[in-house]
Design a protein that fits this description.
253 residues; 2 domains; 5-stranded parallel β-sheet; 12 helices; 10% strand
Length: 253
């Protein structure tokens, strides 16, 4: 029996069946106890391998997604009024809009939850099996500027080009020069028909022309991003300012 198990282990390693051999003893015991047929026994082993691969693939997607910590929307505080009803949050979490290639623009002042919602939706997408990535505008710009010279950034660029969903956090937070603005437009132009995009911004689309210093590019960019798009305007006070921390003892006078 041990020689047979050793041969099974070697074959599992050869065919990269990472979960099949570890599940073997338990499957054999269950088969003997329940008088399991060969087909059912084989099915149990294959299910173990499938579950292992599903978990492995999800962990890989989570690693490359680049998500901030603590973004699970299951823990999002819906009691705070930010101008966005919990019912609509639930509709967004169904992710039907990803399959329909819809974009989402989360607009509002700093601290009202734009990044939290965007990253939480990205996490939902990863868990649902989509190739989803969270990047700041600065991350995207850096990749576009260095992809032809830095192999890792070229890999990142190719990864983004194949995405189902890309979150671009803090878009238009800082001005772009003409060359970078053109590169960013070309990037959006290449992905907008194959991927959904979530944007967080504290600037109205009308202000983008100032940040790009080119009204023509801004108009063309907005034309592509707003074609199939839901604009969500968030409001309220900054969570960070309301919960501002200090290292001084507040009891001191």
């Amino acid at each position: 029996m041990e020689s047979v198990k050793q041969e099974i282990k070697q074959l599992c390693e050869q065919f990269r069946l990472g979960a099949l051999y570890p599940a073997l003893d338990q499957a054999v015991q269950a088969a003997e106890k329940n008088n399991m047929g060969y087909a059912t026994f084989t099915l149990q082993l294959l299910k173990a391998e499938a579950a292992h691969r599903t978990q492995r693939d999800e962990l890989k997607r989570l690693k490359t997604a680049g998500l901030p910590k603590g973004v699970d929307l299951d823990h999002f505080d819906t009691s705070v009024d930010i101008g966005f009803p919990p019912k609509r949050m639930g509709q967004l979490r169904e992710l039907n809009w990803v399959d329909q290639l819809f974009n989402i623009v989360l607009m509002g002042p700093s601290g009202v939850g734009k990044t939290r919602i965007a990253s939480g939706l990205c996490l939902d997408a990863v868990r649902a099996g989509y190739s989803a990535y969270f990047r700041t505008m600065q991350d995207i710009v850096h990749t576009l500027q260095t992809k032809d010279a830095v192999p890792s950034q070229n890999t990142e660029y190719r990864r983004l080009m194949k995405a189902n969903l890309i979150v671009i956090d803090d878009i238009m937070l800082f001005p772009l020069n003409k060359e970078t603005a053109v590169a960013f437009f070309n990037f959006i132009n290449q992905i907008y028909e194959s991927a959904s995009i979530i944007i967080t911004t504290n600037k109205a689309p009308a202000e983008w022309a100032k940040m790009l210093d080119d009204e023509v590019i801004a108009t063309a960019l907005l034309d592509r991003m707003l074609y199939r798009c839901e604009i969500i305007k968030l409001s309220g006070d900054s969570y960070r300012m309301k919960n501002r921390k200090s290292f001084f003892d507040n009891s001191d006078n």
